[in-house]
Amino acid sequence: MRTRAALFRAAGEALEVRELELEEPRAGEVLVRMAAVGICGTDLHMVKGEWSRPTPMVLGHEGSGVVEALGEGVEGLAEGDRVVLSWAPSCGRCADCRRGRPAGCVELQRAIGAGTLLDGTTGLSLDGETVYRGTATGALTERLVVGAGQALKLGDDIPLEQAALLGCAALTGVGAVAHSARPDPGASMLVVGVGGVGQFIVQAGRIAGAAAIVAVDPLEGRREQALRLGATCAVAPSELKGALGEIAPDGVDLALDAVGAPETTKLALRWTRNGGKVVIVGLPAAGARLELDPAEFNRREKVLTGSMYGSEDPAVGLPQLLEHVRAGRLELASLLGPSYALDDVNDAFEASLAGSPGRVLVTP
Asked: Contact 94/168 with Cβ under 8 angstroms?
């Protein structure tokens, strides 16, 4: 079969919308008609040339859609089911999979680096040339074949455009708080970067009962959004020292770095109290290195850790998110930014790179 998709060839070049050859779903796979795809920081690393992957490639991994066809042996899904994509298919056998950490699966990480599915194939081609998949998914396309385990049932009560955010930003941000930071009620939190993932970190802190949630971001629109979502204070980086001097003069209990760059992680460590915890959530550019002062960890007894895809199996994490959404605790609608048709995908990337306060969507 054929599908129209946004093709990425190299940093600095416009994406091309081309008609690709898409293999039919094999045993254990499903065909999904994509409804909405969020532009994630991972995609931006690629278009900025900060990561190197095989090309040509279809980017995109945060999305929602409707199941159109089932491969042999698929159970638990039916044609017409509304689904959220998980970008973490896993082998189920390695040490990380056995520990319930499918995003850390060794075979998955190899596949992401190679631009393929777990079995080394992509199922996509253009004029006989292999087309690779971003983050083992490749969602910026009208139709997509994925493993049945990547298509997580959504139900019928959440609009598909809103649901797209659940597949990456929400699972990542909420999970980082719930499963890695684990704030006690009344805790103080610093959130560094309040783009897509950071906005869910703020909400998760509110849900957990944090007493003070300080958001820091250079963009005013994102700071305003963080305040609407539950931050008790939102400041530019130059204002952080003064704000924390009043709110948490000894430093915050927890700091979550939603950016992941060395300078933002250093900022998070700087403003965390002795004995506090810093969680790196965002992903840095390839080759970035973090210089650390050992005294932060022995004399000051701080903890520095990371969280990948919410530190939880997406199949477990998504129902938890849906419960929060349905109870009115987790906001989705106000986090949506501008939406673009597939033919306008380059405009979507420009809006995201410019720092849109809301998540930029492509609706294939």
From this structure: no
Please report which residue ranges of the chain form alpha helices under DSSP H: 41-47, 95-98, 106-114, 160-163, 169-175, 196-208, 220-229, 240-247, 262-270, 314-326, 345-353
241-251 pLDDT, tens digit each: 999 999 999 99
Of 64, 77, 58, 74, the C-alpha closest to 16 is 58
- The CA distances from residue 142 to 63, 86, 126, in Å, are 11, 17, 15
Residue partners of 158: CB distance under 8 A and separation at least 6: 322, 325, 332
Q: What is the set of domains in the chain, with CATH numbers?
A: 2-158+332-363 (3.90.180.10), 170-309 (3.40.50.720)
- Report the C-alpha gap between 56 and 130 in whole angstroms: 8
Q: What is the pLDDT of residue 91?
A: 87
Both tokens of residue 319? 């129902």
CB 185 within 8 A of CB 254: no
Tokens describing residue 301 = 């007894």
Q: Considering only CA atoms, which of 172, 27, 36 is closest in space to residue 103?
A: 172
- For position 100, what pLDDT does the model report? 81
pLDDT tens by residue, 220-234: 999 999 999 999 999
Nearest to 172 by CA among 292, 91, 283: 283
